[in-house]
Amino acid sequence: MMAPIIESAAGDFAGQIQFKKVDIDASPEIAQAFDIQGIPTFLVKKEGHLIDRFSGFVPAPVFKSHVVQYLK
């Protein structure tokens, strides 16, 4: 389950990066627009541009290391 990992990262990186959660069952147009095939899928946007995406469970240390690279 990714929710606790994301919540922890959101606290660790508060003010530096924003995390948004989308319920694709309630908003299927978003899943279609971003070609989301599996859950969880993480989209990384910077200045309005999609710069990365990855899917599946990611252990907390790996997830946080991904976040750090986007802050540079």
UniProtKB/TrEMBL annotation:
Q: Taking every annotated instance into account, which residue ranges of this chain make up the domain Thioredoxin?
A: 1-63
Instruction: Give UniProt keywords alphabetically.
Output: Redox-active center
Q: Which CDD domains match?
A: TRX_family
Gene3D superfamilies per the UniProt record, alphabetical: Glutaredoxin
Q: Which GO terms describe its cellular component?
A: cytoplasm
Q: Which InterPro entries match?
A: Thioredoxin-like_sf, Thioredoxin_domain
Give GO terms: molecular function aspect only: protein-disulfide reductase activity
Report the protein name in the record: Thioredoxin domain-containing protein
- Organism per entry: Secundilactobacillus kimchicus JCM 15530
Top-level taxonomy: Bacteria, Bacillati, Bacillota, Bacilli, Lactobacillales
